[in-house]
Design a protein that fits this description.
It contains eleven helices and eight strands. It has an eight-stranded mixed sheet with strand order 3-2-1-4-5-6-7-8, sandwiched between helices. The termini are far apart. It has two domains: about 10-245, Rossmann fold (3-Layer(aba) Sandwich); about 250-300, Helix Hairpins (Orthogonal Bundle), CATH 1.10.287.4290. It has helices at about 20-30, 55-65, 80-90, 115-140, 150-155, 160-180, 205-210, 220-225, 265-270, 270-275, 285-300; strands at about 10-15, 35-40, 70, 95, 145-150, 185-195, 235-240, 245. It is globular. The chain is an alpha/beta fold. Helix content is about 40%, strand content about 15%. The structure holds 1,4-dihydronicotinamide adenine dinucleotide. 1,4-dihydronicotinamide adenine dinucleotide (NAI) binds next to helix 1 and helix 4. Keywords: Oxidoreductase.
Length: about 300
């Protein structure tokens, strides 16, 4: 197998690496020379319970294959603890793969505070906690690769996943801000929306379809986004079953009433077709690019 792209000397934290996608990511990094922190709390798919076996078994698997790995059995809510494990075992951290996740699917009118807050805590707060604990180290060394995990269910919306969608797009917002803050320090932050069979998809309405999607088909993109040769940031990618594509924002050309002109609800209704006309779209990728349209309106 071609192994041109390697991670020798790099320390990689993979959260939620005791199973599913995270395990595949960890195996891939270790097989290419990385020192891997295998983090996993070992609870169930709804975030209940804990077990050391999840992280430990993947560490054993990696070592049996001749790789280097250490277990971190704590929740991603304890980012400093996970980063401390990396420091104690390997002296630093270079790459953070934020992957840990749970599901508490339920329609919004039945969603409890616990359903809402546990999903925010694991996905959004956990991603924040691990990333923020690693951030000063990455800044000091002027090197870092961070991969966030969002979901198509959040990007496009899905019934019964209001808690998950909010958390997962929160992660995308975090990634976008950190991509800007990390840019000058060579800390690149990219996000994937994967699709793969795992215990999280066993109960999905389209589980039969998902069963065909191998989790190992997601790891090559994660590896590329985390490699020193990859040099772009703020990307969002859909990945699964051997398919990889990038997503971006698209804005209709819109209609400019002009900043100086008074306009009404009736004017908006009258111009609606051109406001939502995507025939000549724009693709702003920064706040400054986004504001150019508003700025044009000021001069009309
Ligand atoms: P999985 O359930 O197989 O793996 C998630 C891992 O995270 C588990 O091993 C679990 O023990 C661990 N985990 C859960 N809470 C944790 C915590 N507080 N601290 C540390 N570890 C914790 O599920 P899968 O599918 O591999 O999910 C990986 C990521 O991909 C998740 O963020 C998920 O939301 C996301 N995702 C997966 C999709 C799919 O099609 N499988 C679709 C879209 C997103």
């Amino acid at each position: 197998m071609d192994q041109t792209l390697r991670y020798d000397g790099r320390v990689v934290i993979v959260t939620g690496a005791g199973g599913g996608l995270g395990r595949q990511h960890a195996l891939m990094f270790a097989s290419r020379g990385a020192k891997v922190v295998v983090n996993d709390l070992g609870g169930d798919a709804k975030g209940c319970g804990a077990s050391a076996a999840a992280a430990d078994s993947v560490v054993e698997e990696i070592r049996a294959l001749g790789g280097e790995a250490v277990a971190s059995r704590t929740s991603v809510e304890d980012g400093p603890g996970i980063v401390q494990t990396a420091i104690e075992a390997f002296g630093t951290v270079d790459v953070v793969i934020n992957n840990a996740g749970i599901l508490r699917d339920v329609s919004f009118h039945k969603m409890t505070d616990e359903d809402w807050s546990l999903v925010q805590r694991v996905h959004l707060n956990g991603t924040r906690s691990v990333t923020q604990a690693a951030w000063p180290i990455l800044r000091d060394k002027c090197y870092g690769r961070i991969v966030m995990t969002t979901s198509a269910a959040a990007i496009y919306g899905n019934f019964g996943q209001a808690n998950y969608a909010a958390a997962k797009l929160g992660i995308l917002g975090l990634a976008n801000a950190l991509a800007e803050e990390g840019r000058s320090k060579n800390i690149l932050v990219n996000t994937i929306a994967p699709a793969a069979a795992s215990r999280l998809t066993e109960t999905a309405s389209f589980a039969d379809f998902m069963n065909n999607l191998r989790p190992e088909a997601v790891s090559p993109l994660v590896g590329w986004l985390a490699h020193e040769r990859y040099n772009d940031t703020k990307g969002l990618f859909e990945v699964g079953a051997g398919y990889i594509a990038q997503l971006r924002w698209e804005r209709s050309q819109g209609h400019c009433f002009g900043a100086a002109r008074q306009f009404t609800v009736d004017d908006v209704a009258e111009r609606w077709e051109s406001i939502v006309d995507f025939s000549s779209p724009e693709h702003p990728s920064t706040l400054a690019e986004s504001l150019t349209a508003i700025s044009r309106a000021l001069s009309v």
